[in-house]
Amino acid sequence: MTATVTAPQRPTTSRRRTVGPGLALLIGPLVVLGVGLGYPLAWVIAKSFTDRNDRFAGLSTWSTTLSDPAVHKAVWRTVEIAGLATAGCLVTGTFIAFVLAFVPFPGAGAIVRIIEAVVSLPSFLLPLALGVLFGPVGVISSITGDNLTLMSSVTGVVLAEIAFYTPFVVRPVLAAFSQFPGVHIDVASSLGAGPLRIATRVILPRVRPSLAAAGSLTFLLTLNEFGIVLFTGAKDVMTLPMMIYTKSIVGSDFATAAVIAVLQLALSVTVYLGYRLILRRFDARTGV
User: Fold this and answer.
1) 132-146 confidence digits (pLDDT tens)
2) CATH number of domain containing 114
């Protein structure tokens, strides 16, 4: 006669007891996030369906704003500046990271710390510093006697954004370079490959995921940049964030500003989704 042994059941009381406090801890941040973020977004979206006098206008404000050539120009200018700044950051940041990783020299660690410190600075400090040097009443203008307009143009805005956002490229690319196997460089060098060929055919393809992630993040940040454009004094450079500021604060046209803000939000979310898609594809390839 055989006896059957039943497996002891695990107690569920302790699990049920921990669900309550855990759920309470989760609800608190969600409520704060919903009130702090959800309410302003809902207010902006609702405001976009009103007119200048705060009366419900349906889609009339949307149709008027979206058909405005100035808005079309601002969208193009925003994407143009973000694209040029991102390209400049990728080129400059990759070069700096490459030198710091593969060309050892005294003081490299201090330079890395300085680059990291730039990220903690407010974005308007760099255009102010560049304005002191290259502005209409800056140092260079006082020396040469010319009225420089570099900082009040698209070129000045792009240069200021490159100077501020390059560290966002340097750090992830430098981390990718630091994990690159040095034996690959030795093998390529022994096979007769020159420095340029090694850099373009051996090193850069291995850090392509970091470059794509850094470029996507930089494009997203420059797409929403406001302080740099404002403090360069570029009056003719009208981006979407600047147009939102002008319409709401200067012109008191909150309905039109709300439409442009929703447009900016949709553009930013689209770029962010593209950024997440790029990361997901590279993670799938690398098996992360």
Assistant:
1) 777 666 677 667 666
2) 1.10.3720.10
